[in-house]
Amino acid sequence: MSELVLRETRGAVAILTLNRPEKLNALNYALVDRIKEQLDTIEGDPALRAVILTGAGDRAFSAGADITEFSQTMREGPDAAVRAFVRRGQSMTARIEAFPKPVIVAVNGIAFGGGCEITEAAHLAVASERAVFAKPEINIGIPPTFGGTQRLPRLVGRKRALELLLTGDTFSVQHAQEIGLVNRIVAHDDLLPSALELAGRILRHSPLTASRILTAVTRGLNTTIAEGLEIESEQFARTVPTADTREALDAWISRRPPHYQGR
What we know:
Layout: E1 5-10, E2 13-18, H1 29-43, E3 50-55, E4 60-62, H2 67-74, H3 78-97, E5 103-107, E6 110-112, H4 114-121, E7 124-128, E8 132-134, H5 148-156, H6 158-167, E9 170-172, H7 173-178, E10 184-186, H8 191-203, H9 207-220, H10 225-239, H11 243-254
Parallel strand pairs: 2-3, 3-5, 4-6, 5-7, 6-8, 7-10
Antiparallel strand pairs: 1-2, 8-9
Helix pairs in contact: 1-3, 3-4, 4-5, 5-6, 9-10
């Protein structure tokens, strides 16, 4: 069996490619597990400071969950379906959302269902002009299960999200940008270079500070503003004694480029 997630390294950036192009990169259980395994490895490697997620082939980022596989689990009853399907998918998107290094999705085509939910969970998203999105779960009689009922309203607002969730209609990459699901649209051939360029602009800065920002934003979104401000204060306090913060301040005062050590 071919590797379900291809991994390539470009400098400090790990590129993960969902690799089931013959199935439009549908998220079967093994692929979901492999994404999490790859993220575990990347988190433990200090040389890797950002992640780009994309899909193999020219047609799809991911067409969503593997319907044939999870429908078989559903026949075993709700407990089995929640355990094998829902929890597995939710743990993957939660892992992406809370990952301590920037995760950029490069949406190269269809991003339906679970593919759209990965896009929602990722920190940033660059999309090809050929990308198309949908929240089609209602068409097969289920609600989204990888976090789509929760993250999409937080990203785009309740009414916009409900229109997409309740109709199941496809929507264009232009609409995805308008509602804040993706950061930018680029020519198809420029997709990966654009994602790498965005990663490079992040990598100019301290990896510790980037991680603190990611933590503050991700945790704060799910709390009150008062609790979020406490989280912000806590993350600031954790940066104060670091060598990277001292170097950033010294470099700014001295008008020279900083040299970060990641500590």
